[in-house]
Amino acid sequence: GQNIDQPTEMTATEGAIVQINCTYQTSGFNGLFWYQQHAGEAPTFLSYNVLDGLEEKGRFSSFLSRSKGYSYLLLKELQMKDSASYLCVVMDSNYQLIWGAGTKLIIKP
Amino acid sequence: GAVVSQHPSRVICKSGTSVKIECRSLDFQATTMFWYRQFPKQSLMLMATSNEGSKATYEQGVEKDKFLINHASLTLSTLTVTSAHPEDSSFYICSAREGRGRETQYFGPGTRLLVL
């Protein structure tokens, strides 16, 4: 079956760094997305990785290892507004999105 | 970046009535549009995928006669919840993709439906 695993909840301190891990097992692979979703709002796109390596975009970076079925989202210089759920999403061989359950990130002052 | 709008953002209706939700891609042509629903504290659940000009493909367990989807143009898709019941109360989110391949999906802001 298809499966995406990510921690249910994480807590971090304002100004610090946090890494949210995601492992996946899917039928084929056509890329991995990270989305941010604030409570009561629709998801917003953060990053897309299809090749191995690190993609950096401002305070956010995303890493992919296809051989390990593993990705992480790295958030630096955490701000209170970063408190949200972070969704790991894999596109399978049929270009269908497989959604992780999301990691709720709590930022403390 | 690409913008997707949804209307209405919030709707309250009586049980038994039908509700139509519009999804528009504002600055790109959306070959494919997706409809999701999300229950509180849960991840998104894909309801259906629609390609412009063809019938929507519904996910298992989603009643196509209850959730009518029309993707009549490259910028507009509509979801009609027919004969709504309280259990249909949910957060409905559409997303749009420019091509049929790997392009990113962009999400609308969502429509919160409450059926009394």
SSE order and pairing:
The complex is a heterodimer of chains A (109) and B (116).
Chain A: E1 3-5, E2 9-13, E3 18-25, E4 32-37, E5 44-49, E6 53-57, E7 60-65, E8 70-75, E9 84-91, E10 97-99, E11 103-108
Parallel strand pairs in A: 2-11
Antiparallel strand pairs in A: 1-3, 3-8, 4-5, 4-9, 6-7, 7-8, 9-10, 9-11
Chain B: E1 4-7, E2 10-13, E3 19-25, E4 32-38, E5 45-51, E6 57-58, E7 67-73, E8 76-81, E9 90-97, E10 106-107, E11 111-115
Parallel strand pairs in B: 2-11
Antiparallel strand pairs in B: 1-3, 3-8, 4-5, 4-9, 5-6, 7-8, 9-10, 9-11
List its salient traits.
A: mainly beta; six-stranded mixed sheet; five-stranded antiparallel sheet; 0% helix; globular; B: 116 residues; mainly beta; seven-stranded mixed sheet; four-stranded antiparallel sheet; 11 strands
Care to describe what's here?
The complex is a heterodimer of chains A (109) and B (116). Chain A is mostly beta strands. Chain A has no helices and 11 strands. In chain A, the strands form 2 sheets. In chain A, strands 2, 4, 5, 9, 10 and 11 form a 6-stranded mixed beta sheet that branches. In chain A, strands 1-3-8-7-6 form a 5-stranded antiparallel beta sheet, with no helix packed on it. In chain A, a hairpin with a 2-residue loop joins strand 6 (53-57) and strand 7. The mean pLDDT of chain A is 92. Chain B has 116 residues and is mostly beta strands. Chain B is 0% helix and 51% strand. Chain B has no helices and 11 strands. Chain B has strands spanning 4-7, 10-13, 19-25, 32-38, 45-51, 57-58, 67-73, 76-81, 90-97, 106-107, 111-115. In chain B, the strands form 2 sheets. In chain B, strands 2, 4, 5, 6, 9, 10 and 11 form a 7-stranded mixed beta sheet that branches. Chain B has a 4-stranded antiparallel beta sheet with strand order 1-3-8-7, with no helix packed on it. In chain B, strand 9 and strand 10 form a beta hairpin. Chain A binds chain B through residues 30-31, 33, 35, 40-45, 48, 50, 87, 91, 95, 97, 99-102, and chain B through 1, 42-44, 46, 91, 93, 100-102, 104-110, 112.
